[in-house]
Amino acid sequence: MDCYGEELEHYPQFMIRLGLIIWVCMFTSIFANAEDGYQLWLRYNRIQNANLLQRYTNSIATWAVFGNSQVVESARNELRLGLQGLLNKQIPESTELSPTGSLAVGTPHDSPLIRSLGAAQQLDQVDAEGYAIYTTSSGNFPVTVITGNSDIGVLYGVFHFLRLLQTQQPIENLSIVSNPKIKRRLLNHWDNLDRTVERGYAGCSIWDWHRLPDFISPRYTDYARANASIGINGTVLTNVNANALIFRADYLDKIKALADVFRPYGIKVYLTARFSAPIELDGLPTADPLDPRVQSWWQEKVAEIYKLIPDFGGFLVKANSEGQPGPQNYNRTHADGANMLADALAPYNGVVMWRAFVYSNAANEDRAKLAYNEFVPLDGSFRKNVLVQVKNGPIDFQPREPVHPMFGAMPKTPLMMEFQITQEYLGQGTHLVYLAPMYTEALKFDTYAKGPGSEVAKIIDGQLDNHALSGMAGVSNIGNDRNWTGHLFGQSNWFAYGRLAWDPDMDAAEIADEWIRMTFSNEPDVIRAVSALMLMSHEICVQYMTPLGLHHLFDTGHHYGPGPWVNDLSQREWNPTYYHQADRQGIGFDRTATGSNATSQYFEPWHSRFESPTECPEKYLLWFHRVRWTDTLDSGQSLWEALCRQYDAGCDGVVRMHAIWNSVVGKIDSERYNEVDMMLHIQEKEARWWRDACLSYFQSISGLPFPAGFDPPQKTLEYFKSRSFPYAPGTKPRW
């Protein structure tokens, strides 16, 4: 009786503890299965199609990975994780082949079995980073082989194979050879040492500089996995508006710690080099690139870096632009500055990526022409380990720009593409805008530099001008938000960038299909709906922000919303009024021979097409031409009416996008469905804000009435001008 009494006395405490344990377990289980976006496209969830699951399980009854390097270990771990998750069982690792099917992974160098399965012949057309995936047999036993000439090729092949499983493709009769067309496939992080991110909309920097090098977040490994899965092989860790402190010894130790995490995934680290670092760090009286003391300083600093990080990639440099120091401070050229750094890096096979994003208020010239004017005369004067990094358009990551005229104009110099992944001028962190159509529009543009067939993709991959050095850079949209990119669909732009850096000839729709299947579902209804939504989203954004070739209409500092009226900034090319030049008669920037003559920087037939207001593609009309409000366009509408209708169409387009998303309710997990649904509500409101603010302003300039049946803005122009967002993400001080 006493024993029972003692138990009863403690029963309430026992039950409370038991209840807490059960609650914690339930919460942990729910959280573990919650779709919060952290896994990106590497969701190895069980395949729901029972027949397909059985086919896959039969084809991969055993598997083996040969080799013992860090990179091979990454491939082994990824394959184990992927197979166990997708097939919902632990597939035995064994070199014994199964009569139903086996998977053998490795280089011929590491495995007699791989050699015996014909890898040498399969690898004849495979380069150092490429891979082959093929089906063969040993005796009567079917075998799937993933192989490469290097360990990193094997890792890329493993990710490709897992992608086949994730997207539910047949694997019984494979014959795949894949090589990256571009050698250096980089993310450019605009991350500062205080963990702010310039133009970042997904939280703070993921690099925890204060706790490095001793605290290594698991997120660093997941970052490397995600990049390797899409073929990215380099990362520039720091902002192009550089801080010389990154070269201090204690920070180099932090960089080494990150490089050690990334190396097993084939990712090299790069740094942005502040040109004045010798002055700021060691008190040199000059940073003149032709001064022997400066040259020695950089040589010693580079040697110090490579002693810590033997596979360091090199430097990215923003010089003599937007206040950044550079060689022009000493009456030297961009080539003088780039070559000085290139000479220091050359003994270690490092490269310099010298940005062509330059403009100066001192030059009374169209900003769209400035980079061409400064760099094209220097063609052939850069060292062999220098790439000139050029944005896709000649202004600054606008929703739509014509291709930069530098592409094709410097045949003696390797040019690398710089794309925006973060959406600085494309709705930032709140708008769903799939950027692959914008990327492919630029990559497939035929410059005619050497006649027909001179596409931008062929210029940047080196084949048009026989350059061994090639590169592509994407300005990263990654932050420490749980889902990495702030907006869930921002992940698709990171994914698309990587896929296009590997193969610039890929189609935007093909990439969207892959990402949807890996991220959401293989259900046909979901794929059709979400793909349609994604593929229409960029054009819709252009319509409600900058239609008919308008550009740089964004408000000051944050670039968050419309500000076509802004005209009081200290540099004329920071003012939206400089770009649209609207007055009572018309609107648009005259870049023809009667204006700035920027059209002359393009090859024929583009020069003539852009020069003619009737031949110029309508999507670039106001970029190249000044047009009267009352002029009639090909549609039969006046320019004013067409502009109004374009803004209207953009708003209607977001409503259609939202309706499409509503159609997949219940077919996508509620966590991610609801998150995107809320974002689309924001996008609808902000698209209307863009429409009403811009048209209110342009009507105040033109004095024309809105077209019949047009829903006029519900707020006054004064209201739109009065709005302020001092703490919007990515905000900069008013210049």
Verbal overview:
The protein has 735 residues and is of the alpha/beta class. It folds into 3 domains: 129 residues, Chitobiase, domain 2; 323 residues, Glycosidases (TIM Barrel); 144 residues, Alpha-d-glucuronidase, C-terminal Domain (Alpha-Beta Complex), CATH 3.90.1330. Helices cover 40% and strands 10% of the residues. An 8-stranded parallel barrel has the order 6-7-8-9-10-11-12-13. The protein has a 5-stranded mixed beta sheet with strand order 1-2-4-3-5. Helix 15 crosses helix 16, helix 16 crosses helix 17 and helix 17 runs antiparallel to helix 21. The radius of gyration is 28 Å and the shape is globular. It starts with a helix and ends in a 13-residue tail after the last helix.
Q: Say how many strands there are.
A: 15
User: What CATH architecture of the largest domain do you see?
Assistant: Alpha-Beta Barrel
For the CA atoms, what is the radius of gyration? Answer: 28 Å
For the residues shown, what is the average pLDDT?
A: 94
Instruction: Give the CATH level 1 class of the largest domain.
Output: Alpha Beta
> Strand order, biggest sheet?
6-7-8-9-10-11-12-13
Sheet with the most strands, sense and barrel status: 8 strands, parallel, barrel
Share of helix, binned: 25-40%
Notable characteristics:
735 residues; alpha/beta; Chitobiase, domain 2; TIM Barrel; Alpha-d-glucuronidase, C-terminal Domain; eight-stranded parallel barrel; five-stranded mixed β-sheet; 23 helices; 15 strands; 40% helix; disordered N terminus
